[in-house]
Amino acid sequence: SSNITTVTTTIILPVTTPDGAEYMSILVFARLLDKFSNENDTAVMSLRCDEILSHSRVHDHVLEIGTGTGINFACLHINTHITDYVGIEPNIHMHPYAQTAIKRWNVPFKVRLSSNSAIAMNDVESNSIDTIIMTFVLCSVPDPLPKQLLTEAHRVLKSGGELHLLEHVLSDPNVKPMTNSFQKLIDPLWAIIGDGCHFRPIGNYLDQMKTIYSKVDYQNIEVPVLLFLVADAIKGVLTK
Fold first, then answer.
1. Helices 20-36 and 177-193, interaxial angle, to 10°?
2. Quick count: other Cβ atoms within 10 Å of Cβ 191?
3. I need a surface site. Which of 97, 112, 143, 146 has the fewest CB within 10 A?
4. Segment 88-117, tens digit of pLDDT
5. Which domains does the chain have, with CATH numbers?
């Protein structure tokens, strides 16, 4: 018999309704992300599946911050160590794409999608999550909210639980000065087409977490992509 996945969606309505421009931005971004972020990009998918989302790392009660179009289900659906999954995705235009991915991969564990904010995950209990995963999310979180998001992630993690992340970063001006300058130059436009995504010094946010988490490990890497602007990245593990 085939596996049956129960998908429930929690819709938390925003306090304010997006204006026309903002609505079009998040709608267009959802469509662009679905088109250009897909499992056919074997190099990036290998980085996602084999390093960030390896089966030995992701287990039991799993929370994903920024489910997006559900691209990580391509990695997670064969992970027999996952008991259930909660996906936080405030952009509700992403949810249909994520639900399509869940059905496509015949995900065997229970899934709940929430449009709540990761800054205040009121529908997730403290000390209830074994593994948090987050890929290419923090660029869209405006200052000073990344610190709040990472602190909230600490709250919901069990003792010894881990947050695994992969993020694009602002290039080091001492290593790649031209790339850094160009990133800063186009950042306003990048934010418009990228649903608020900015080139950020993610390592600084992680350093701030060393007083909260028991262990913070990260390293700077290069993502195998054609667009040099987003090649510099960081991968890390934060342990409660």
1. 120
2. 17
3. 143
4. 998 888 899 899 999 999 999 999 999 988
5. 7-239 (3.40.50.150)
Residue 108 in tokens: 């065997």
Q: What is the pLDDT of residues 153-202, one digit of tens each?
A: 999 999 999 999 999 899 999 999 999 999 999 999 888 777 678 889 99
Residue 202: in which H helix or E strand, if any?
helix 202-208
Alpha-carbon 165 to chain mean position: 7
Q: In sequence order, what DSSP letters do the residues of 74-138 get, joined into one string?
A: HHHTT-TTEEEEEEE-S-GGGHHHHHHHHHHTT--SEEEEE-S-TTS-TTS-TT-EEEEEEES-G
CA distance 128 to 209: 20
- The rounded distance, in Å, linking the Cα atoms of 209 and 240 is 10
- Return the structure tokens found at 213: 């988490």
For residue 158, give the H/E element and its range: strand 157-168
Joined tokens for residue 152 = 């909230």
List 216's β-bridge partners, or say none: 238
H helix or E strand, kind and range, residue 176: none
Distance CA(117)–CA(14), nearest Å, equals 10
Would the CA dihedral through 12, 13, 15, 19 be positive or negative? positive
Stated pTM of the model: 0.84
Integer Cα distance of 195 and 198 in angstroms? 9
How far apart CA 53 and CA 58 sit, in angstroms, is 6
Measured CA to CA, the distance from residue 240 to residue 157 in angstroms comes to: 7
